[in-house]
Specification:
429 residues; two-stranded antiparallel sheet; six-stranded mixed β-sheet; alpha/beta; Rossmann fold
Length: 429
């Protein structure tokens, strides 16, 4: 049997070798990752593109190579481009050292610029999220409610005509006719031509009899028989079990300044990108709230302009209704990500904690609260832990619930480190 040869005809990007590029990225992974992390805080919130610039130190990126020991033996070399010197000429040493970057040379006479190159969008995202995951995701197939889906499962001899597999049936028909040695029409035509040209009466009688027998056999073996028919078979299989829904909850009240919203949106955009790239069976629910909460689509969530007072519990009242209607905890892994500046009506904090304790946290795999901006202060820069500073309320809940985490985002450079802390891989308890 001949060997198969596989030829990769995919085009290399920009005339470069894809294999060499992957080797380079792997060898300099730590430096590239650090550069990617450092660049996040400098990017525009809506910035997206096919390439992302990355800069790393040149040290350590040279390819290893073999060379001769300059201290042993004698050797002759030819320097290309030489038009002034001949063999045996002596060259003066450079005066005053050399090398370096800028106006002043380095002390040892050597210096190199940093190395810059571009990462594709896929490479950039893979580096960001390669070791992150949604915490505590569990299979759901062993709960009370089970769902099934129909999938192809081979062939059967009986079935609905609409499920008839023509290709498989015809293959069986051909095989049966070959096995029964059905006479071919070509053979019959050849005998008929011979009969027309034959002058020997005895031979003509033999040909006529042979043609008659072949025609009888040909009619006896049908073109297609019920035994040839095959029907597509379908069976029920369990639906994918690790399905999840994430609730994006963002405070858009009047106390949320543009800076606060910028931090919140940066966090949510990272989360949205992370979920869409790493998981196939994860749904996203977007909720904006001030005194009233509304479920919106992704575009409205990130670009809406409405604002008002602050009643945080309204968002979780709405979330509770959505869970009851569409996302049964017996079938779905449920996650929450909330961002707020920490401001809330004092009378609502008790209501909020009651909803979280009784209705949200018991059915949630993981809940993350992000408070954006500087910790709230009063007087001469003093800090307070008073009603309205939500992070203190969530930290109190965090003590009794291992599926809740509360973090503070002060500036853009905090967004990705906090994101990694929340969604880092955890060992199962």
């Amino acid at each position: 049997m001949p060997n198969n040869t596989i030829i990769d005809r995919r085009k290399n990007p920009g005339g470069k070798s894809s294999n060499n590029r992957q080797k380079f990225l792997k060898r300099n992974k730590e430096q590239i990752r650090k550069s990617v992390y450092d660049s996040l805080g400098k990017r525009k919130i809506s910035g997206s593109g096919d390439e992302h610039g990355v800069t790393i130190q040149r040290k350590g990126i040279n390819e290893p190579q073999f060379g001769h020991d300059p201290q042993s033996g004698s050797r002759d070399i030819v320097l290309p481009g030489n038009e002034e010197y001949t063999e045996g000429d002596l060259l003066e040493k450079p005066k005053g050292g050399g090398g370096g970057v800028g106006h002043e040379g380095s002390p040892d006479g050597e210096g190199e610029d940093d190395f810059s190159f571009a990462l594709s969008n896929d490479e950039f995202v893979n580096i960001l999220f390669e070791d992150l995951e949604l915490p505590h995701m569990i299979p759901k197939e062993n709960r009370v409610v089970k769902k099934w889906e129909i999938a192809r499962s081979g062939y059967t001899n009986e079935g609905n005509p609409a499920q008839l597999n023509l290709e498989k049936s015809m293959v069986n028909s051909i095989g049966r006719r070959i096995a029964l040695q059905k006479p071919k029409l070509k053979k019959i035509r050849e005998l008929e031509e011979e009969l027309e040209n034959c002058k020997n009466e005895k031979r003509r009688l033999e040909l006529e009899e042979e043609i008659r027998v072949l025609r009888i056999r040909a009619r006896a073996i049908s073109f297609i028989d019920p035994v040839d028919l095959r029907y597509n078979n379908f069976t029920k299989i369990p639906k994918p079990s690790s399905q999840a829904v994430i609730f994006f909850v963002m405070d858009v009240s009047a106390s949320m300044t543009e800076f606060h919203k910028d931090l919140a949106k940066r966090f949510f955009m990272l989360l949205n990108l992370f979920v869409s790239r790493k998981y196939k069976t994860v749904k996203c629910v977007f909720i904006r709230h001030h005194t009233k909460a509304n479920e919106v689509d992704e575009e409205e969530f990130f670009s809406g302009k409405d604002n008002g007072g602050t009643i945080v519990s309204s968002a979780f009242e709405l979330a509770k209704e959505i869970i009851n209607e569409r996302y049964s905890p017996s079938e779905w892994n449920i996650y929450f990500a909330q961002a707020s500046d920490g401001d809330n009506w004092s009378s609502d904090n008790t209501v909020l904690k009651d909803i979280l304790r009784k209705h949200i946290l018991p059915v949630t795999q993981f809940f993350s609260y992000i408070q954006v901006g500087e910790p709230r202060g009063v007087g001469m820069g003093g800090y307070y832990t008073a009603v309205g500073n939500l992070i203190s309320e969530y930290e109190e809940l965090e003590k009794d619930n291992n599926n809740l985490i509360a973090k503070q985002l002060v500036n853009r450079n905090d967004v990705y480190p906090v994101f990694r802390e929340i969604f880092k891989k955890r060992e199962e308890q």
